Amino acid sequence: MSNHVHLLIETPHDPISRIMQMINFTYTQYFNRKYGKVGHLFQGRYKAILCDKDNYLLALVRYIHLNPIRAGSARNLDKYPWSSHREYETGERVLADTDKVLRLFSESPKVARRKYVDFMNSEHEEEILPYGQQILGDDRFVEKVTAKTEREDLPVKKPSLKKIIRAVSAETGVEVSEMISRRRDERLRMARGIFVLLARELGYRIIQLQDILNRDDTVISRMGENGRGDQSERMLRKAMARLNA
Fold it and tell me: What is the pTM assigned to this prediction?
């Protein structure tokens, strides 16, 4: 899209945080080399929705591929170059692994592609994908995932920045006074990064974090990079669960 990208990824082995970290890092390097740029390319943290593939996969494929039409970026999906739609339609191999989705239509690739095109062109009611929701599935799927991960969705009421930074402090063991200080070490950088990412995930903008961290927006944006990684992700989720509780 014009200012963001949608990725539909199955993650049987590696966590999504590691995958997105590698994509962001390598693509930013490529983009900066190609266009002579420096610094960050993507703003803020990615948004992730866990999807029940048995019941919602086709709806999600359709939703993503029709986005350019809804946004007015294209009139004809066949001619839209920045989408995997043509790979599903023609069998051309570029980036997408289309087999799993197409097999839901038919074991015959030719028949599957034809049925996929019919599905995309059919008069379906608009699929409603819940923005801000982290799990896409029926009640049983949501309960199963919630029980397995021992956490719930985002809080219904957005917590204050003071509550967020206190939750991060409790999980990381870094005092709030240390986080807002000018001191530098790895432990402080990680805690600040987790706070920035968590605040962003809960809907705060970078500019709203300036008063509490006493830094300008470019520094705060860089801080968020220090909150990435497996250990930071675990602490971020624990802080989120603390806020939910």
Answer: 0.57
